Amino acid sequence: MAKVSVIKRQVRRENLVRRYSALRLQLKNELKKETSFKTKMELDMKLQKLPKNSSKVRLKNRCWKTGRSKSVFRDFGLCRNVVREMANQGLLPGVVKSSW
Q: Does the keyword Plastid apply (predicted)?
């Protein structure tokens, strides 16, 4: 189980990304279209003044059950430990234990 503070930090980041995504996209599109160097520098400064955590790159996939950030399966949104437990219990449809 992940620390509560780490999970809350992730939620705050998600809120910032949601809030600033439109403005960030608009600034990036203007930056691509612009040809003059001076205007590009001004747009870049505006982009840099946005909060650091408002960038989508700073988000991390987390297990929805435990909050673990490593080895998260995209299909289920669960970490490998929970996937294994739930698959053994038969709670994940279409997942079978392989044996050879």
A: yes
- End-to-end CA distance of the chain, in Å? 32
**pTM reported for the whole predicted model:** 0.74
Domains, the chain, ordered by start: 1-60 (no CATH), 61-95 (4.10.830.10)
Q: Cα–Cα distance between 28 and 20 in angstroms, integer? A: 12
Predicted pLDDT of residue 99: 72
∠ CA 7-13-15 to the nearest 5 degrees?
Answer: 105
The predicted pLDDT at position 95 comes to 84
DSSP tag of 72: E
pLDDT, average across residues 45-51: 94
